[in-house]
């Protein structure tokens, strides 16, 4: 137990729920710069790699062999390996060196060389490198849609909302593996409700994944995992050759794939060979490129907590994203699995991918609540949607999402849940009841859903997988039941499979009008207006300020149009009422000779504005102050300043006209000061700057205290509530009310006001 | 047969895949182009057969003879010369690294 109350509090903070450990290289618990990592080297004999990173070919493991024979570009290798790593690192951030030149050399680098290049870079430089090397010009985002109860109506509804929110890809998975065909089906239906063109996948065992794709239930696959040591690769039940074959098998059915790798997996599987996580990941990425995968999901992924427990872990994760981009791989850059208890830490980590932009900033973003996320909890969840939208608006960064209204969301959720219901009925699957549809429309999580017979669903899933029915039966069912729009969108995805344009690197679909810088001449739009954005049609052309992807135009308008946004005029509309009827100007203000308190109000008081910031009527405020003064046996006199709207100036003016030398300055928004003649203008007896927390009782107390000062008594300052959030909440209103008051400023001396009211004291 | 039915309406053609391979190569994505060329060959292979070959390539599944037989069949029955060469290359490495089924 801490003796210090501060240390005790710090111990309870979210950040201290994390595990932090020292590096232990022999156990693979080191993120980069491992003492056992090899130094870069390459010997080529007779156009064949004879030695790589300190190992002779005879000593190669299967991964080394694959990298040597399928990854390394021997035309560039000599030049690349002879170029100093520091120079290559500088080329990455030099806007005068084109990305393709950096990539040409990177493809001739050994894994150890790639690590040595990025070790020269800090995170800012890596982010600049990532912005330049990213394959697709337009950044995008991927969603996770799952639920704990595997409820089909909810899967369809959540997928539809995710598509509406702008995700370019949706990934689902299963709690029970046998459920995969139905989960894939429901997410497919949901994803094509509304806009269409969203790619979908189901994370599942590799063969099953291919079978789902063959049935047309998925349009891409991502969980083709690769590892950086031979032992862990084999433990993952593949070799580089079997994985490469799998990639070709998917492509032969027109289905996009990306591989998956990430720092920490080998250490977690106990087969790190004492090498650093980044070195092993560099080997993975060389295998990914060598196998002909167009891209990779990396950024530690499900292992993220492991590098984050170590020094420099978050930097290393950015470094692996960067290496992937250098190699021309589409990068779906992690930020997916639950990585931190601390909202500060997870947000800060996100910025490393969010600000430079990646092909998919998340892989993926949990578009469902954390407890429904079957990937191990999302680092960002459905609960964070509005935060994320605000981050895009704050930084003018395209994070791939758009704000939506509740009405839009409810509409697509209903359509998707009803479509899933119709398809289940047509294909003879267990009924989705109306009650489930209705619950799915408004649900936040699976806890809002009625229970279902999982056993019956699993039996149906088995039959579906084994039987003749496929996606074409789904399309036909949708047409029969009147869901023509969804049927058309799914049919369009099948058509795209035949065209194969989305097999090119970093491909996503957008509607024709959504493509910002895409080369419209190179591809014709399909009938549905879908356009492929990829390395070929939308290549990243970042070359410094003013180039590359810029968030502007219609897309920027979409990002800034949060449903929560209000017109600033609304903030002051309710502060403007009918001018006070019992307040009359009677001529220039007089200097008093008696023991009195002068209240000097701002130029908008009771006329252009009639309420304070927290809605107190000006008339009631005046009555409270006058009552307070009267209770101390003095009389208050009222004047209005026209030459200033500033609170200190109002107080100064009040005291200079006051017979007692005591004056109260009162702005229309309610900010108040008690001033005494002879004090410097910006000094005061009491200042009430927290106008939103002032009540009528406070104003009466202010009147009393001013009178006591006038009588020369000892005064206890009026207690005020200090609400530091009030400034934050009300800053716009404060600014606008002050602006309105300032508009009333005239070149005119203070005027005497007759307030037609007597305090009853 | 189920396979015949599936390889129908939404099956990408070998020619299209070769065109995509050419486009990938031209843009500097050499290995992706190789992958798409293998894929073009594999369009002729039925689903079940494709799944079987993948399974056979996984570690510890096949003997060297079995894998070489697959390579031969790919070349003979499906004219998949590039993929066959790739499988033979795998077989050589599996032999060197002990990745065949132990009997």
Sheet with most strands: strand arrangement of chain A: 14-20-16-15-17-18-19
Q: For the terminal residues of chain B, how far apart are their CA atoms? A: 34 Å
What order do the SSEs of chain B take from the amino end to the carboxyl end, as H and E? HHHHHH
> What is the total tally of β strands of chain B?
0
What low-confidence regions of chain A span 5 or more consecutive residues with pLDDT below 50? Answer: 517-525
**What CATH architecture label of the largest domain in chain A applies?**
Alpha-Beta Barrel
Distance between the termini of chain A: 58 Å
Q: The CATH topology of the largest domain in chain B is what?
A: Hypothetical Protein Yqey, Chain: A, domain1
> How many helices of chain A in DSSP terms?
29
The dominant shape of chain B is globular
Brief synopsis:
The complex is a heterodimer of chains A (761) and B (103). With 761 residues, chain A is an alpha/beta fold.
Could you give the topology of this structure?
The complex is a heterodimer of chains A (761) and B (103).
Chain A: H1 5-12, E1 42-45, E2 48-52, E3 55-56, H2 62-71, H3 74-82, H4 85-93, H5 99-106, H6 111-118, H7 123-133, E4 142-144, H8 152-164, E5 169-172, H9 180-191, E6 199-202, H10 206-214, E7 220-225, H11 230-235, H12 240-252, E8 256-260, H13 265-268, H14 277-290, E9 295-297, H15 305-308, H16 313-326, E10 330-332, H17 343-354, E11 365-366, H18 385-395, H19 406-427, H20 434-442, H21 454-466, H22 471-480, H23 484-499, E12 508-511, E13 530-533, H24 553-560, H25 568-573, E14 583-588, E15 596-601, H26 618-631, E16 635-640, H27 647-657, E17 662-666, E18 672-676, E19 686-688, H28 696-711, H29 724-743, E20 751-755
Parallel strand pairs in A: 4-5, 4-11, 5-6, 7-8, 8-9, 9-10, 15-16, 15-17
Antiparallel strand pairs in A: 1-2, 2-3, 12-13, 14-20, 16-20, 17-18, 18-19
Chain B: H1 2-6, H2 14-26, H3 30-42, H4 47-57, H5 64-78, H6 81-97
Helix pairs in contact in B: 2-3, 5-6
């Amino acid at each position: 137990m801490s003796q210090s109350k501060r240390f005790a509090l710090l111990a309870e903070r979210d950040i201290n729920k994390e595990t932090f450990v020292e590096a232990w290289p022999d156990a693979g618990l080191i993120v980069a710069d491992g003492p056992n990592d090899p130094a870069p080297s390459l010997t080529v004999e007779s156009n064949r790699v004879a030695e790589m990173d300190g190992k002779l070919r005879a000593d190669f493991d299967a991964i080394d062999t694959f990298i040597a024979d399928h990854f390394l570009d021997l035309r560039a290798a000599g030049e690349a390996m002879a170029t100093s790593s520091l120079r290559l690192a500088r080329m990455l951030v030099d806007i005068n060196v084109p990305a393709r030149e950096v990539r040409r050399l990177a493809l001739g680098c050994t894994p150890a060389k790639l690590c040595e290049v990025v070790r020269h870079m800090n995170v800012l430089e890596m982010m600049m490198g990532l912005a330049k090397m990213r394959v697709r010009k337009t950044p995008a985002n991927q969603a996770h849609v799952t639920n704990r109860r595997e409820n089909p109506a909810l899967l369809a509804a959540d997928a539809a909302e995710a598509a509406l929110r702008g995700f370019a890809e949706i990934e689902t998975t299963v709690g029970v593996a046998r459920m995969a065909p139905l989960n894939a089906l429901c997410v497919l239906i949901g994803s094509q409700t509304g806009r269409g063109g969203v790619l979908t996948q189901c994370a599942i065992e590799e063969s099953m994944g291919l079978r789902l794709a063959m049935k047309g239930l998925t349009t891409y696959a991502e969980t083709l995992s690769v590892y950086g040591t031979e032992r862990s690769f084999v433990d993952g039940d593949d070799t580089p050759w079997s994985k490469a074959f799998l990639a070709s098998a998917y492509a032969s059915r027109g289905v996009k794939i990306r591989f998956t790798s990430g720092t920490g997996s080998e250490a977690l599987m106990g087969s790190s060979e004492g090498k650093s996580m980044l070195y092993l990941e560099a080997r993975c990425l060389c295998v990914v490129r060598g196998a002909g995968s167009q891209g990779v999901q990396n950024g530690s992924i499900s292992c993220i907590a492991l590098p984050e427990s170590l020094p420099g872990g978050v930097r290393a994760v950015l470094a692996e994203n960067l290496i992937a981009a250098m190699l021309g791989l589409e990068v779906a850059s992690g930020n997916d699995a639950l990585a931190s208890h601390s909202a500060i830490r997870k947000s800060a980590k996100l910025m490393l991918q969010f600000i430079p932009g990646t092909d998919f900033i998340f892989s993926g973003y949990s578009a469902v609540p954390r407890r429904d996320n079957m990937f191990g909890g999302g680092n960002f969840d459905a609960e964070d949607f509005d935060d994320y939208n605000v981050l895009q608006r704050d930084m003018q960064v395209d994070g791939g999402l758009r704000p939506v209204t509740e009405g839009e969301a409810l509409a697509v959720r209903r359509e998707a849940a009803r479509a899933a219901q119709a398809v289940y009925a047509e294909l003879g699957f267990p009924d989705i009841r109306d009650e489930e549809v209705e619950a799915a429309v408004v649900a936040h999580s699976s806890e809002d859903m009625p229970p279902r017979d999982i056993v019956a669903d699993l039996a149906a899933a088995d039959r579906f997988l084994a039987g003749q029915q496929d996606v074409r039966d789904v399309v036909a069912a949708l047409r029969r039941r009147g869901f023509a729009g969804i049927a058309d969108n799914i049919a369009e995805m099948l058509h795209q499979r035949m065209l194969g344009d989305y097999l090119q690197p970093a491909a996503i679909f957008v509607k024709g009008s959504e493509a910002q810088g895409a080369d419209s001449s190179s591809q014709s739009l399909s009938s549905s207006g879908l356009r492929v954005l990829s390395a070929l049609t939308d290549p990243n052309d970042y070359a410094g300020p003013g180039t590359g992807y810029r968030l502007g135009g219609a897309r920027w308008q979409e990002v800034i149009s949060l449903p929560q946004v209000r017109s600033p005029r609304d903030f002051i509309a309710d502060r403007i009422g009918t001018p006070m009827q019992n307040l009359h100007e009677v001529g220039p203000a007089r200097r008093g000779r008696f023991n009195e308190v002068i209240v000097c109000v701002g130029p908008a008081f009771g006329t252009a504005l009639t309420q304070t910031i927290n809605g107190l009527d000006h008339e009631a405020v005046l009555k409270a102050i006058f009552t307070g003064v009267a209770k101390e046996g003095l009389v208050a006199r009222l004047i209005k300043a026209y030459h200033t709207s500033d609170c200190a100036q109002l107080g100064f003016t009040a005291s200079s006209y006051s017979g007692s030398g005591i004056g109260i300055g009162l702005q229309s928004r309610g900010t108040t000061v008690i001033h005494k003649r002879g004090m410097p203008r910006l000094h005061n007896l009491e200042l009430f700057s927290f106008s939103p927390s002032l009540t009528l009782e406070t104003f009466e107390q202010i009147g009393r205290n001013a009178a006591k000062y006038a009588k020369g008594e000892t005064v206890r300052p009026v207690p005020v509530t200090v609400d530091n959030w009030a400034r934050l909440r009300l800053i716009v209103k404060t600014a606008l009310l002050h602006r309105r008051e300032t508009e009333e400023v005239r070149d005119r001396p203070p005027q005497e006001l007759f307030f037609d009211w007597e305090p009853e004291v | 047969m189920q396979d015949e039915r599936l390889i129908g309406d939404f099956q990408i053609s070998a020619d299209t895949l070769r065109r995509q391979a050419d486009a990938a190569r031209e843009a500097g994505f050499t290995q992706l182009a190789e992958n798409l060329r293998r894929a073009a060959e594999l369009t002729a292979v039925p689903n079940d057969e494709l799944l079987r070959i993948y399974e056979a390539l996984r570690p510890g599944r096949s003997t060297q003879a079995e894998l070489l037989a697959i390579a031969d069949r790919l070349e003979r029955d499906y004219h998949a010369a590039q993929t066959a060469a790739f499988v033979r290359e795998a077989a050589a490495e599996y032999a060197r690294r002990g990745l065949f089924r132990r009997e």
